[in-house]
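Q: I'm building a small set of examples for a reading group on sequence design. Run inverse folding on the following structure and report the sequence directly after it, with nothing in between.
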């Protein structure tokens, strides 16, 4: 009896439902090279854009000097193609010496000196997707090397590996990372590769091993790609929502805002949706040349606050009809049984004119008797207090969004009836 109770207590402490390395309590934020810079290794002809220490140092500088770090983007991460094709004589991974002449440790030190964290890319298989050495058969050496280099974040891809082995391999590497004693956020591609092979991922298990994980196709520079990811998250939300929370997140891949493929409205749509999905926010964009209006979207503190809300709830699609969707995410503050909410009205129609959408707050689950203060988030417009039976109307641009926060009111926060919004029109 005593033993059973003790086992129960120990289990309560160490057998939690999810990975408890204390990291990524809110979705991680940073900059990742892949979507924008890919495997460009041609430093001879394209020295400013090739994968090199110069590129990462420059991006680190800008992340600090232009306000990205203070907005919360605190990780700068390598992706594929940083490696030499051969390990060193002692069997360690090594960077391509012509493109990273100072070595990875020096780059990590530089990144740390800027107040940023350093992210690493590797692959569980024999080779990375780009054909560089993977970690298979070297797991322990590589975990130790990452710790010695000062890595804070590890993205582990899954090319050239057997997806059915990943249930064993990803946890094994996670344990080895843990045993180094250096806290490292663990980003896994495990479920994505399993799904591609028709294996149903055990997300409960994956959530005990990884801080975040990819479950769908790589993003590329188009609205079609963004839209397909949003659809995947909506269509699979009953599987994906329960497994997300502080310390363990679904990862719909990078933000492509500021590149070539998205319009201004589509860029706001990606930012709003990634916020409401409690997604990791990794920009993959050339920070040297990004247009100011796109930068403003990435730095919007109202929208980032929804993403980083401490409750860590992944939002849900509660309405979808004729191209119009409504997504909702519970956020702080909470008053009694009622929480506040971020609501995204997403218009996936591309046939032309803006669409008007009206909802009664009660119909989207906002039932607090005291009502909600409603604020439009991108432009920061306060729209007044709405009661549950009030109707709210928004006008949503094609492939665009309107994003609002409904902050639950308390009795005390209501000064007088005069504060009630009477005309109920948003715009
Ligand atoms: C890398 O190693 C292979 C053998 O494993 C060898 O043939 C090749 O010459 C090496 N390349 C370099 C650049 O050292
Ligand atoms: C290793 O795992 C233990 C148990 O989950 C955790 O308490 C500890 O913080 C982890 N350490 C590192 C460095 O990740
Ligand atoms: C999924 O993993 C959990 C936690 O490790 C385990 O308890 C459960 O049996 C697994 N489910 C399946 C279907 O294998």
């Amino acid at each position: 009896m005593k033993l059973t109770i003790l086992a129960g207590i120990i289990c309560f402490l160490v057998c939690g439902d999810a990975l408890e390395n204390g990291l990524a309590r809110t979705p991680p934020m940073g900059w990742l090279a892949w979507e924008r810079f890919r495997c460009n290794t041609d430093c001879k002809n394209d020295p400013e854009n090739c994968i090199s220490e110069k590129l990462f140092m420059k991006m680190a500088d800008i992340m600090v000097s232009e306000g990205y770090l203070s907005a919360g983007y605190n990780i700068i991460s390598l992706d594929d193609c940083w490696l030499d094709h051969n390990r060193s004589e002692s069997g360690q991974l090594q960077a391509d010496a012509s493109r990273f002449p100072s070595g990875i440790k020096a780059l990590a030190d530089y990144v740390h000196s800027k107040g940023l964290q350093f992210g690493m890319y590797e692959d569980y298989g024999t080779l990375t997707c780009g054909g560089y050495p993977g970690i298979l058969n070297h797991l322990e050496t590589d975990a130790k090397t990452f710790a010695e280099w000062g890595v804070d974040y590890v993205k582990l891809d899954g090319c050239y590996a057997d997806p059915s082995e990943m249930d064993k391999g990803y946890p094994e590497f996670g344990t080895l990372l843990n045993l180094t004693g250096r806290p490292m956020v663990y980003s896994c591609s495990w479920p994505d590769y399993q799904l591609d092979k028709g294996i149903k991922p055990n997300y409960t298990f994956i959530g005990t091993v990884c801080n975040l994980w990819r479950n769908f196709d790589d993003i590329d520079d188009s609205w079609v790609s963004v839209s397909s990811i949003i659809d995947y998250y909506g269509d699979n939300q009953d599987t994906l929502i329960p497994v997300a929370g502080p310390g363990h997140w679904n990862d719909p891949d990078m933000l492509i805002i500021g590149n070539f493929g998205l319009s201004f409205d589509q860029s706001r749509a990606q930012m709003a949706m990634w916020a409401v999905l409690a997604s990791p926010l990794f920009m993959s964009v050339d920070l040297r040349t990004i247009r100011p209006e796109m930068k403003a979207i990435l730095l919007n503190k109202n929208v980032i606050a929804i993403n980083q809300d401490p409750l860590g709830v992944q939002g849900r699609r509660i309405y979808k009809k004729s191209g119009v969707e409504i997504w909702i995410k519970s956020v702080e503050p909470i008053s009694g049984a009622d929480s506040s909410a971020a609501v995204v009205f997403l218009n996936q129609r591309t046939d032309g004119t803006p669409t008007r959408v009206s909802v009664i707050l009660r119909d989207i689950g906002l039932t607090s008797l005291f009502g909600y203060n409603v604020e439009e988030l991108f432009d920061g417009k306060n729209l007044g207090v709405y009661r549950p039976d009030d109707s709210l109307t928004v006008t949503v641009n094609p492939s665009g969004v309107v994003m609002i926060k409904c902050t639950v009111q308390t009795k005390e926060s209501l000064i007088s009836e005069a504060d009630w919004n009477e005309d109920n029109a948003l715009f």
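Confidence is low (pLDDT under 50) at residues 1-16, 422-427.
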